Amino acid sequence: MMSLHLKGTGASPGIAIGPAFVLESGKVKIVKRRISRSDVAQEQERFVHAVGVAENEIGAILEDIPEELKEHSGVLKSHLLMLKDRMVFDRTLQTIENDCINAEWALDKAVKHIHSLFAQVKDSYIRERMEDIEYVVKRVQVLLASSEEGMNLEGMDEPCVVVAQELSPADTVRMFKQNILAFVTAAGSRTSHTAILARALGIPAVVGVEQGIRGISQDDTIIVDGLTGDIIISPDDDTIEKYTEKQQSYIRYRLEVIHNSALPAETRDGYRVKIKANMELLEEIPSVISHGAEGVGLFRTEFLYLASRELPSEETLYNAYREVIERLSPYPVTIRTLDVGGDKFVSSVSLDDEINPALGLRAIRLCLKEKGLFWDQLRAILRASVHGQVRILFPLVSGRTEIMQVKALLEQVKDELREAGVPFDESIKLGIMIEVPSAVMVADILAREVDFFSIGTNDLIQYALAIDRVNESVSHMYEPLHPGVIRMIHTSVTAAHNAGIEVAMCGEMAGESMYAPILLGMGIDELSMNALVIPKIKRIIRRCVYDDCVELVRRILDASSGSEIKYLLDDFLRHHCPEEFEPLDERYPEFMKTGSPLLN
Amino acid sequence: MLCETEITILNRLGLHARPASRFALLASEFSSDIYLVRDGELVDAKSILEILTIACPKGTKLTLRAEGEDAPQAIEALKELVAGRFGNID
User: Fold this and answer.
1) Phi, psi for residue A563 in degrees, rounded to 5
2) What is the radius of gyration, based on Cα positions, of chain A?
3) Could you give the percent of chain A with pLDDT greater than 90?
4) A491 band by pLDDT with thresholds 50, 70 and 90
5) What CATH number is attached to the domain comprising A477?
């Protein structure tokens, strides 16, 4: 058999060798079968029941929609109407009876008919409503399928490599209960949820396979290299042997890294920094703990809003927060309030199209506008605060007015809880993200109003340099070491310390090992990063001398360009931690050669 | 009883999803059979999907037809909904 080579993006490091388990392209499999005349009534009853369940689900969501968002409930109401529309409901019942076929098939026929009518509509907005119909119908199809035997995950008994067009977060989570060697998806990027989950659980994953996954058949032997993005189908024996060796040396490498993770992040001269993890999903908690994080410095709360089309209830939020807080206890958890708008789209909050979303209604601005949504989240966080150590972090604050508005609102929420006798941490600490240049300029004023800062470098650099990283014509000018950026970070740290508050960094810069000496020298109190890179950052810090770092920063602040700063930094690293940038390369040349950010 | 009247869609975005769903919802409250006719094409006014398939932008003229006991009341209520631009929802 000829072996076949595919290339994708390495999304979670590690090597897997095993049989492929190919999932249908994210669609519900519609079982089509004929039924006898005597079963018609029963089949119709099964359909009516499934529609009823779907209706109740939507109804429950509608009841939970807060008053302020009532105007957005129209979409859901139209879904209810569509479910019972005679073109869907009556027609399916009729088709079951006339054609003697099962409900799934009949419903599918009804949808195809609607599809053909909609295809002729000239108005593109109305034509797109077909998506709504497909959404509600898919829900009914899923309900129908689950009432019969044979969900598509059955048969996944042996350890296998899951291959799919794409996986929804729900699919991915459901599958972790199974015995999975690796994930391969044709769609997706390093930041898609499948990738995040796979990394959290240490399962290799390759996403965004250019040639697609059609070349992979059920039970093909397949090698997945989650670091390089290589996929080899039906490999020969030599290749299997080569990859088995590579697999072994990767496992040794990981064990060595993890061994280091339990040590404190302390410089040779005894200066200690807090190292925490950024996280979003509950599934990441074990990885956060095993990689040696001293708490969570950035708990992103977008996932629950992105996971469904409806707003999560206060109870859902509370339960999720409580779980994270309890499982991390006694370590603290910093919860960042909803940071959406801009590039991240939340289907449960309808936003008008914005020409310039990065400068638009997002994060704290959106929360101060959609107060009902914000209220629920603040209540949930406060209620959860009694279960451990919690801090609240507000994103995208640009000045004092916003802080005052947020604090006033938070007081109202606290009053409501007090009146209801609901306990919460009365001394809960409040912080703001420093990621808008204006916030840096008035950092001394802001520092008087909050308990801590957390510098978000990704947005800060983008706004400070006016560079859109996604725009290929200018992305090379996205320079974390630009003197303008370095000075902004320095100004923020100084302002915080002058006011006697702590300052953290939770952007990507915090997790890049080469920047660690600069951040140490500036006196940042806490670095929060992807859990996977914690062992490496700790090791770098343990090689550094604090006084040398302070001296490095002094020289860097005088530098006139990014390349000059880069030169000073490279020189420093060569002299102070040469072993950090070489020996590993010798021992694990295979991994170092890839230059993958996954190994940072 | 059969009643008929001419209506004109006045709201900015035409008879799109939300107005159509309000229309279908209100029509469903009556026992009469209710239809919308556009250029000779007749659809069930109680079906949001059928209403959507005749795609009516602003300015479209339609015939509203009701047949049944409460036909006059149905025509009256639906006419008012259309004239009031469906409660100005867009």
Assistant:
1) -70, -30
2) 27
3) 50
4) very high
5) 3.20.20.60
Residue of B nearest to A79 (CA): B21
Please give the residue that has the higher pLDDT: either A132 or A288.
Answer: A288
Instruction: Answer yes or no: do B53 and A125 touch at CB < 8 A.
Output: no
How large is the angle between the packed helices A483-498 and A546-558, nearest 10 degrees? 120
Enumerate residues 84 to 113 of chain A having a beta carbon within 8 A of any beta carbon in chain B.
85-88
pLDDT in tens, A408-437: 999 999 999 999 999 999 999 999 999 999
**Residues of chain A contacting B16 with CB distance shorter than 8 Å:** 123, 125-126, 129
CA distances from A43 to A30, A95, A104, A106 (A): 15, 11, 10, 10
Where do the domains of chain B lie? 2-88
Q: For chain A, how many structural domains are there in total?
A: 3
- pLDDT at residue A117 above 60? yes
Closest in B24, B46, B53 to A117, CB measured: B53
In a domain, A143, yes or no: yes
State yes or no: pLDDT of A138 exceeds 90.
no
The answer to whether the CB atoms of A78 and B16 lie below 8 A apart is no
- Put simply, the answer to whether B55 touches A122 (Cβ < 8 Å) is yes
Q: Is A506 a catalytic residue?
A: yes
Distances (CA, A) of A459 to A314, A436, A456, A468, B21: 29, 7, 6, 10, 41
A88 vs B49: CB contact, 8 Å cut-off?
yes
A216 touches chain B (CB under 8 A): no
Q: Does A135 touch chain B (CB under 8 A)?
A: no
A97 with A242, same domain: the answer is no
CB contact under 8 A, B21 and A78: yes
Specify the CATH number for B2-88; select among 3.90.650.10, 3.30.1340.10, 2.30.30.240, 3.40.50.1980: 3.30.1340.10
Residue A462 domain boundaries: 262-599
Q: Is A160 a catalytic residue?
A: no
**Confidence check: pLDDT of A585 > 50:** no
Task: Provide the token pair at A237.
Answer: 């024996």
A32 domain-assigned: no
Q: Note every long-range contact of A238-241, with CB atoms under 8 Å and residues 24 or more positions apart, other chains counting.
A: A239/A3, A240/A17
